[in-house]
Amino acid sequence: MSHWTPDFCFELLKQHEPLIAAAAGTNEAMTRLRAIDTILFDVLGWDKLRVDVEKYCREVGYADYAMHSDEALPMILEAKKATDAETKKKIGESFVLPSKVKFPANAIGFSLLAKECPEADKALRQSSGYAASLGARYIAISNGHQWLISLSWLDGVPVDERSVIVFESLDAIKNKFRLFWECFSPNGVATNRVLDKLLDSRKAPPPNKLSQRITGYPNPVQPNQAAEDIALVLGDVWTDLQNEELELEFLEECYVIPSSKSATLEFAKDLIEQKYRSDENVTATILKSAQVPGLIASYQPQRPIIVLGNVGNGKTTFLRYLRMIEASKTLEKYIQLEIDFLDRLTDDREVSDYVYRTIEEQLMKPPVKMDVLSDKLIRSILKNELKRFPNTPAGKAFPQSSPEYIKAELEFINGFCADKHDFYRRVFRSLRGERQYTVAIFMDNLDRCPDRIQEAAFLRASAIARDWACLVFVCLRPATFYKSSQSGVLDTVSPKVISITSADSDIVLTRRLKYAKRYAEGKLKSQQSRTAQYGSKFSYEMPTVAAVIQCLLDSIRSRGGSDIVQLFSSAANNNTRAMLVLVKKYLTSKFLDSRTIAESYMHDASYRIYDYQIIRTLMLGDSVHYDPSSSPFCNIFDIQHANPVEHFSRVTALNFLNTFADSQPQQAAYVRVSDVKTHLCTMGYTAEHAHRTVQFLFEKQCIESRDPIEKWSDSIEFICITHRGKYHVAHLISRFNYLDAVSIDTPILDDATRAELRDVRTLEDRVRQCALFVEYLDKCSEGILDVSVRSLWKTAYSQAMNEMARIQDSVLEAKEVDDIG
After folding, report:
1. Of 650 and 76, more confident
2. CA 659, CA 427: separation in Å to the nearest integer?
3. Residue 220 near residue 623, CB atoms below 8 Å
4. CA–CA separation, 571 vs 555, rounded Å?
5. Which residue has the higher pLDDT, 401 or 177?
6. What does the pLDDT average to over 590-598?
7. What is the rounded end-to-end Cα distance, in angstroms, of the chain?
8. What gap in Å lies between CA 638 and CA 650, rounded to an integer?
9. Fewer CB in 10 Å around end: N or C, the chain?
């Protein structure tokens, strides 16, 4: 329970101290009743339902206390009597630490304990048998006023070299109570608080990675000039495609309307038509007095329509498709004003001025062609007010034709114009009444702005929709909407929210590549009207570029091509924009030999690109070495301390979350962060390391929060595995190109293996070295406590070794062909 803090428990210890002290010198049963039971249950707060007494251990005997924590049994505690002569005859049945020895707060070696108290050493060794039988992580013994704790098992470390934490007296327990609480309390045991103290290597940093020993790491690729020329042209083509995204031809050929979004599109179209009909049918209606209360009760002020979606989910394209295709007929009757917030503002205080200035600029363009600053327009809008001016005090103060009168009238007009919001309310009312225009305002790319700018823009949009009677679309990130809703900034009761999700990756990618190929071939209608000419090198490489794109397109369409789509989509976490960025990164990577791909495909149309080639290209980018700061894939085997099992802590967390995701395939399976951390602690990791593991995976977008929070916060309660996280444990963990790449970024704790690893480049050497790395990880996996993770790794190990064996066979075959030639 949360209130069993160290301070709270210390106060309980002081209250029960007389009873505990009275147990000294009594028999074992009395020692357990007065001292050990009191400390465990009344001071430290153990739940008696989580403690088994006289636990049977096969072929060993009975353990006095078996302490449970969630699904594991982390500790075996043996109760020993201190002075009874009869029990001392039985090896390990009793112990008394010498009172003259004051043990330190840090752990000591088993060998030192054996020297000072052979009986305690024997008792701990006996308890190790119980712990090994039951699978407990810790062993402990106590005679009531003296307590010892150690690890029950440590891979490759003899018993004599293990560490023990000793509390030699009741005074020592009081003086070092926080450490005692960490050793023996339910919370301390469950979160492995003393693991670092019992295992010095856990505190020691790991040895340097191979990457830290390479001069100039990460070394850039040195591509041949021909491949680099193609990569540059491919980059230009892809950039031009981004500029095409808002063109009608692009939208007609590339925009994908998934079934889950079709209803959203219809809803948005209906909103536009409803708004136009309401403006078109504005007429004076005479109401009976009895109708007035009903009108007031049903009246709702107009609000902006929120287009909600993560960055890259296609909100801009959705609005463009809506305006240019789906609702184009209705919107022909609208004045459409677009306010683009991308890279425009740095401060939320600039929002209002930017909105009004942009509206003013767009009203001057066709089809409206209205200068809102013209004297004629302003006087037309304020004609009723100007009729009243002569009767105002300022108007009566001077003759109407005098300079003083004209100056006063100008001040009167400027007073109305100074309030931009009210002035534009009058402008749009005039447009609606005199020109029969309905106004639609689209605030785009707000999702790429800081939260404060998004909130300020939403508040401005709310005022515009309410006061100007305009149709206003506002693009926001779910994270901002959620956060601002919680703080009360956004109007959470708005009934007009359109949620945008990513379209089907397969269709999006296929259409985009087809469009890119047509672009490279010069077959787009938009290209025919262009006056700008490409450079000679650009034009010369276009057929080669078209061949590379067609090869990738055919590879996606072919059998097994879904692996490529899954790779790009998973790496991008099912984000359309991010997926297209990764495709560009692949096509323009200096590591990719695009010239060879094009020539191979033009020579043999059955030539295909495979996902393992793309994995390697994305892993390395423009370098010959894996760089975790630039790769979309993280190193799940990296460690922070010299602890071999730490290689699998990230795998353990992802596998735990993936198990829940597999049980609910139709929806995101969110798990409490505390449950993930508890599972990691149960599997032998410290609470601190569990926290770091979850935070790392969140920052690498392998897990995400239930609430759309984009930056790690300790307030996050629920998380689930992402597409990227699932791809790591379901695919990458067993792939040669991934394992080969991350081996350079992983500290190797085994001296012999570390000495053999080198910076190698040939495929034969890479396979040999990767096999060493995988064998090393397999040896480290022996300490994994999570049965599911151990099984996952064994499968991955087998698949990786088989893949490398096939590669080795291919290398040997190629050598034989060369020898024959």
Report:
1. 650
2. 59
3. yes
4. 18
5. 177
6. 86
7. 76
8. 9
9. C
Structure-token pair, residue 506? 């397969």
Q: Which structure tokens are listed for 285?
A: 């209606």
Give CA–CA dist 425/447, Å, rounded: 26
Across 347-371, average pLDDT: 91
What contacts 324, CB < 8 A, 6 or more positions away?
Answer: 248, 251
Using DSSP's 3-state secondary structure scheme, residue 644 falls into helix
Task: Find out whether 581 and 239 touch, Cβ atoms under 8 Å.
Answer: no
Encoding tokens for residue 540? 């010369």
Contact 746, 637 (CB under 8 A): yes
- Say which amino acid occupies 148: L
Q: Are strands 438-444 and 471-476 parallel, antiparallel or unpaired?
A: parallel
Residue type, 507: I
Whole-angstrom distance, CA of residue 181 vs CA of residue 5: 9
Q: Residues with Cβ < 8 Å from 358, sequence gap 6 or more? A: 337, 339
pLDDT for 315: 84
* CA 719 remoteness from chain centre: 9
| Tens digits of residue pLDDT in 513-544 | 998 888 888 888 766 544 344 555 567 678 88
As a whole number of angstroms, the distance between CA 94 and CA 141 comes to 9
- pLDDT tens digits, 757-798: 999 999 999 999 999 999 999 999 988 888 999 999 999 999
Helix (H) or strand (E) holding 549: helix 536-557
Q: How far is CA 633 from the centre of its chain?
A: 12
DSSP 318-331: HHHHIIIIITHHHH
Three-state SS sequence of 98-130: CCCCCCCCCCEEHHHHHHHCHHHHHHHHHHHHH
DSSP secondary structure of 54-111: EEEETTTEEEEEEEEETTEEEEEEEE-BSS-HHHHTSTTSB----TT----SS-EEHH
Neighbours of 404 (CB within 10 A): 11
* Amino acid at residue number 137: R
| 266 φ/ψ angles, rounded to the nearest 5 degrees | -65, -40
Query: Environment class of residue 141 by beta-carbon count within 10 Å: exposed (0-12), middle (13-18) or buried (19+)?
Result: buried
**Are the C-beta atoms of 600 and 607 separated by less than 8 Å?**
yes
Q: For residue 144, how far is the Cα from the chain centroid? A: 48
Q: How far apart are CA 156 and CA 711, in angstroms?
A: 40
Task: Collapse the DSSP code of 472 into the 3-class scheme (helix H, G, I; strand E, B; otherwise coil) and give the result.
Answer: strand
In eight-state DSSP terms, residue 163 is E
Query: Could you tell me the residue ranges of all domains in the chain?
Result: 6-203, 225-235+504-620, 644-820
819 Cβ neighbours under 8 A, 6+ residues apart: none
CA dist 343 to 196, 265, 338, Å?
A: 48, 28, 15
Helices (H), 636-786: 649-663, 673-682, 687-699, 723-730, 736-742, 751-756, 763-780
Distance CA 796, CA 655 (A): 13
Question: What's the rounded Cα separation, in Å, for the pair 377 and 435?
Answer: 13
- Give the separation between CA 420 and CA 467, rounded to whole angstroms: 12
Amino acid at 63: A
The two tokens of residue 13 are 């210890």
CA distance 4 to 51: 17
Whether 303 shows a pLDDT value over 70: the answer reads yes
Nearest to 567 by CA among 436, 752, 357, 730: 730
